[in-house]
Amino acid sequence: AFETDLFVGIFYLRFKDITAPYANDATKMSSHSAYFDGKKRFYQMVVQGRFKVDDLTFADLCFGDVYDKPFVGVPKGRIMKIYEKFMETLAPGLIMDMTSDHPTILMLVGCAQTLRADVEGDEPTDFDALVDHTESIGDFGTKRRKKLSNPKTARKYDVDPGKVYTFECYDHTMDFANYKQVVMLGHKIDMLQTLNGQSLALGMYKRDSTNVFKFPIWNEGLVVAAAEEENTKK
């Protein structure tokens, strides 16, 4: 559980290749295996809770992160631009800029694979098979992600601080467990080298760059590299 100035709730994250937390719990291990069985996704992130302000629309909120330092070794030019556009096509509403001084990877929260808005007390507590429940947000039919990925239409839908929102996100290109970004044709980018000493993170931002929350995801290799760099300064 966590609380910030703008949000209060829970953050749930599991990785396909990391099973140690469930080693002594057969029920949780079975649930973990069943969730990822037959799926390409590397992780599942669920954010559930209430917003603490009443002036937000679905065009104001994004998942992702903004980095303070440029990435290292990321191909620039036409190839990367094609890849960025390709990813934006796969994920409606995605903003991907991996070659600037402040790399940015953001998508509108309405692009989440699953979105729910429940009366408090009716929100799901089992995250193995989440389904949309958006009747109190709007009438989307089968086009919820398409409508809420477009800022022009997303701003028509208000965020209700009285509702408990559940967002589920998963992805088959970012392998957090091994710190690899899978790009076109199966090529993998080693993010330990690319991040320039920074950690990957999963967070939520307002479009004006105000941070709603942020959870860094560290890798042992980053800690070792940081320690080695610190030793060289002594």
In words, what does this structure look like?
This protein has 234 residues and is α+β, with helices and mostly antiparallel strands. It has a five-stranded antiparallel sheet with strand order 1-2-3-8-7, with no helix packed on it. Strands 5-6-4-12-13 form a five-stranded antiparallel sheet. A three-stranded antiparallel sheet has the order 9-10-11. The chain has six helices and 13 strands. Strand 12 (200-206) and strand 13 (211-217) form a beta hairpin. The mean pLDDT is 91.
Provide a short characterization of the protein structure.
This protein has 234 residues and is α+β, with helices and mostly antiparallel strands.
Taking strands numbered 1, 2, ... along the chain, how are they ordered across the largest sheet? 1-2-3-8-7
Q: Distance between termini?
A: 39 Å
The gross shape turns out to be globular
Number of H- or I-type helical stretches? 6
Order of helical and strand elements: EEHEEHEEEHHEEEEHEEH
Query: Share of helix among residues?
Result: 10-25%
Radius of gyration: 18 Å
What is the tally of beta strands?
13
Mean of all residue-level pLDDT scores: 91
For the sheet with most strands, the description reads:
5 strands, antiparallel
Uncertain runs are none
Specify the structural class: alpha+beta
